[in-house]
Amino acid sequence: MAAIRLLLSLLTGLCAYYFYSQETLSPFKPPEMVRGKRVLVTGSSTGIGEQIAYEFARMGAHLLLTARREKQLKEVAQKCLELGASSARHVVSDMNNLTSAQNVIEDARNKLRGLDYLVLNHVGGSGRFGPFQGDMAAVTSSMTVNFLSYVQLTVSAMTMLQESQGSIIVISSLSGRIGAPFTLSYSAAKFALEGFYSSLRRELRLREISLSVTVAVLGYIDTAKVDCWFTRLPHHLSSIPHNSCYGFDVLFVPPTASIPAPSTGTESLKTRLCVQWEH
C-alpha cells in the first residue's frame, strides 16, 4: 500500500508539472533579443497596454499602437520614442468593429513590413460590470470586443507571425478562471479567451508550427477603469481573489470601513508577468 501511495504521489507531481509548464509564462527574452522586433500592442492608450508599450520601447522595438483615443495614443507614441523605441506609430481603431480589427493588421503589414509580437490587451463593450439584467446587446458587445476581435486579429496576423516565428501574448484576467457576480458578460469573454488560446497553443505544437502563444492571467490592477468600477459599484464587491501569488485562491472580501472597495480593488496580484515587468 505504501508503494502504491508513493507511485500515486509521483504521478500526481508529474501531472502537475506538465500542466503548469504548459499554462504558465516562460521567461522573457533578454532585451537585446527584442531590439528591432516589430510589435503591435492593442489597447495601448492607457493602463496595462500603455505600460507594456513602454517596456517594449525600452528594449528598442518597432511599435504600432492602437486604441480608440487618438490624443492619448499620440502621447504614448511620443513617450515610447523618448524611452528608446526604434519607431513608434499609432492607428485609431474600434474593436467593436471586426473590420476595424482587420484593418489594424493591414496597417501593421504596411507600416512594419511584418510582425514579431502581437500583444492583445484591449478591453471594452457595454455593460461589463453590474447586475445582469438579461441585456443581450451588452453580452454581444462584450463578446465582440473582448473575444471575437482578439480572434480576428490573430487570424489576420497568423501568416506574418508564422513567417517571423513570432509570439502572441494575450492579456487575460482572473475573470477568465474564476466566475464572479456582476461580471457576467466580461467573464464569459475571458473564459472564451482561455479556451481558444489554450487550444490554439496545443494545436500549433502538434502541427509543429513555431509560433508561441502566451495567456497572461492578471489579478486586479490599479488602473483608472478598475477604480471607476469600484467607485460606481462599491457594494457589489464579492469573490475577490486576495493575497494569492498566482490568483487561484478566492476569499470573500466585502467592503468595510477598514477595507473600502476601491482600495481592495487595487490589490495587485503578482503574476509572473507583473514581476517581470515591475519597476
UniProtKB/TrEMBL annotation:
GO terms for molecular function: oxidoreductase activity. InterPro entries: 11-beta-HSD, NAD(P)-bd_dom_sf, Sc_DH/Rdtase_CS, SDR_fam. PROSITE patterns: ADH_SHORT. It holds the Pfam family adh_short. Residues 1-16 form the signal peptide. The keyword Signal applies. Keywords: Oxidoreductase, Signal. Gene3D superfamilies: NAD(P)-binding Rossmann-like Domain (3.40.50.720). It comes from the Eukaryota. Belongs to the short-chain dehydrogenases/reductases (SDR) family. This is Hydroxysteroid 11-beta dehydrogenase 1 like. It comes from Gopherus agassizii. The lineage of its organism: Eukaryota, Metazoa, Chordata, Craniata, Vertebrata.
